[in-house]
Write a structure and sequence with these properties.
heterodimer; A: alpha/beta; Rossmann fold; Heat Shock Protein 90; 15 helices; B: alpha/beta
Chain lengths: 516, 127
């Protein structure tokens, strides 16, 4: 109910005001007091929606009450100053101190009613607006909740999709194994002599089983790439050596087609820190494509380096690609030139996988081609120091766990001062810790100056228990570095999301050595 | 003749691998799950164990863990056969599977007979 406070020392005026207000249609909760002090006390009990205030009162005047109201944060309560206003200055002062309106004495009932009605209406509008805002807010909160639920469902679907591809791929391999070996053994004469025609078709079957296998492998690869789950393990790779190897692998195929393969490099060693197997996969795809689509001339593989990057290109004098097809070539399943050559059909995934691998190495790939003349594919890989790479790997590792698990603990086994003999100290330490972990899902990773362990679905107390167990064993049994200088050893545990929501937070807490 | 123990829950695969190995002058014994494999290994002390990874009851990895703790069997080399390429380190066909920090040779299914024979020769030599 709309609350009105009357502050008036004159009893007759007080009653008059009350009776006028009671005659109004609107319902009011009317309190009246006869002094400023009483008014302040009353305000402590309840905040009125409107104050009718007499200016001239015995203990304190209305103006000072106005000031009190402002001071106490009540400047939003409308105040009508009720008085005999003889001086214009009084009204001015009243406005300046925050009064809303004036009621002259003697009080004209209709005027009072009209002005009170205005304030009442204003308040109603204000409350309606607040209510609308609250509804909107609640609506937004509900939408958030829905989004959260949908997100969680999507994550689950994502995981299922991932497992689905893995499971299907695994399920397909067993029957394929049985079929392949059966046919292979038959063709090798293990079950009796096989004539030439039989052999021909047995070999055809083998070739196609291998094609099936490649399709499964490719599907698995592309699925992992798309889900961000393809792992790369970087090592030092000599691109010159690799490209020569590839050229040698394809030399027979090329010779049969009457084309040459050259490798161009201006140095003996051009090194990158990359996943060797995956780069081989990339080169195999590119050189394989070049062979497939070239019938005469040559294929040239070249490797060059500058201060920050290594660039590799595979160029052929083949049939080329139409310019309208060029932008699509790296998309999944896009295949052109199905008339390519006998038995040369691919999965349509090779280039998409190649692009995925190059991008996972933070590189770029580009294709140029002139129909009828030839094609050149170039990829560029940034050079990384092993320190950069460790940092990147660690970051990716954390992120992927945050995606997969609601909670996990991270153990840190490191040193207060580390002088960088990583391979001598960290690697054996990592192996040692690995051998003392119980679950298959508990994994280790080497950082720049420490070994990290992630224990999925593990709360802080349990993580700490594992930390204590392993660090005890390390101290008792492990390498002399720890026996000799146990003070230098620093170990810690943090839990996601309790100790931090982003990896920078978790890392900072883990390596904070000030608490030891 | 060198003796090879083949462990796989798919009987057809055991048969085929047995055919191939016997045709190449190896003596073959087999088992169809991890625990039987461990028993046969302790009993016959083969020169090599060719073992599937994904088996019910006791996966290959666990069986190897146990074999490694037994004096009688800890020195027998292992060649894993696997249908889960993700198990393999570095995604290469014959790079290896990590069990307790140690890498064991592994071959992805479906495999080419030549590869199987090559890997076996690398681990224990001919016939």
């Amino acid at each position: 109910m709309y609350k009105i406070l009357i502050v008036e020392d004159n009893k007759m005026d007080r009653n008059l005001l009350r009776s006028i207000l009671m005659k109004m249609d609107e319902q009011f909760d009317i309190r009246d007091v006869s002094s400023v002090r009483a008014a302040m006390d009353e305000m402590k009990n309840q905040t009125p929606d409107l104050i009718l205030l007499d200016i001239y009162m015995p203990d304190k005047d209305g103006f000072s009450f106005l000031q009190e109201l402002s001071k106490n944060g009540h400047e939003d309560i409308p105040v009508f100053l009720v008085s005999v206003f003889t001086e214009k200055e009084d009204k001015l002062k009243g406005f300046q101190l925050g009064a809303t309106d004036f009621i002259n004495k003697p009080i004209v009932a209709e005027e009072l009613k009209a002005r009170v009605a205005v304030q009442y209406r204003l308040k109603k509008i204000q409350e309606d607006r607040k209510w609308e805002a609250k509804k909107t807010n609640d609506g937004i909160k509900l939408l958030y909740k829905e989004l959260e639920i949908k997100n969680k469902k999507l994550e689950q679907l994502d995981l299922l999709k991932d497992e689905f591809v893995s499971n299907v791929s695994h399920e397909l391999r067993t029957p394929l194994t049985i079929i392949r070996e059966s046919i292979s053994q038959m063709g090798d004469g293990l079950f009796g002599i096989v004539n030439e025609r039989q052999n021909k078709y047995l070999n055809k079957s083998l070739t196609n089983i291998d094609r099936l296998r490649k399709i499964i492998d490719d599907l698995l690869d592309i699925s992992k790439i798309e889900n961000g789950k393809l792992e790369i393990y970087r090592v030092n790779v000599n691109m010159v050596e690799l490209t020569h190897e590839l050229a040698a692998n394809f030399s027979i195929k090329a010779e049969n087609k009457g084309i040459k393969i050259n490798v161009k490099n201006d140095k003996e060693r051009i090194e990158i820190f990359a996943d060797k197997e995956k780069i081989i996969q990339v080169l195999t795809n590119l050189v394989g494509n070049a062979c497939k689509f070239t019938d005469k001339g040559c294929i040239e593989i070249s490797v060059v380096e500058n201060a920050t990057h290594v660039q590799c290109s595979v160029q052929d004098t083949g049939i080329g690609i139409a310019s309208e097809d060029l932008p699509q070539l790296f998309t999944k399943f896009y295949q052109i030139g199905r008339i390519a050559g006998p038995g040369e059909k691919g999965t349509g995934l090779g280039l998409a996988i190649t692009k995925g691998i190059i991008e996972l190495h933070d590189g770029l790939i580009n294709m140029e081609s002139i129909q009828g003349k030839g094609t050149k594919i170039t990829f560029v890989l940034p050079k990384y120091s092993s320190i950069d790479e460790r940092r990147i790997s660690l970051s990716r590792w954390f992120k992927s766990h945050m995606r997969q698990y609601d909670c996990f603990s991270v153990l840190y086994f490191g040193f207060k001062s580390f002088d960088g003999k990583t391979d001598e100290i960290l690697r054996p330490l990592e192996t040692f810790i690995k051998n003392n972990l119980y679950r298959q899902s508990d994994i280790t990773m080497m950082g720049i100056d420490a070994v990290y362990v992630i224990l999925p679905d593990t709360v802080n107390e349990d993580g700490r228990a594992v930390l204590n167990r392993i660090s005890k064993i390390i101290m008792e049994k492990a390498l002399p570095d720890f026996k000799n200088d146990p003070q230098n050893f620093h170990f810690n545990v943090v839990t996601y999301p309790k100790d931090g929501l982003i990896e920078e937070e978790l890392m900072a807490k883990l390596s904070d050595k000030t608490e030891d | 003749m060198k003796k090879i123990l083949v462990v796989d829950d798919e009987q057809d695969i055991v048969d085929l691998v047995k055919n191939r190995l016997e045709a190449n002058n190896y003596d073959v014994i087999f088992a169809s799950d991890g625990s039987e494999g461990i028993k046969k290994a302790q009993q016959h002390k083969p020169d090599l164990i060719v073992m599937d990874i994904m088996m019910p009851n006791m996966p290959g990895g666990d069986a190897v863990r146990i074999l490694r703790t037994d004096e009688k069997t800890k020195h027998i080399p292992i060649l894993f056969l696997t249908g889960i390429v993700a198990d393999m380190h570095k995604g290469s066909e014959t790079q290896g599977v990590n069990v307790d920090g140690q890498f064991y040779a592994a071959l992805a299914k479906p495999f080419k007979a030549e590869k199987l024979l090559l890997e076996i020769r690398k681990l224990i030599g001919n016939e």
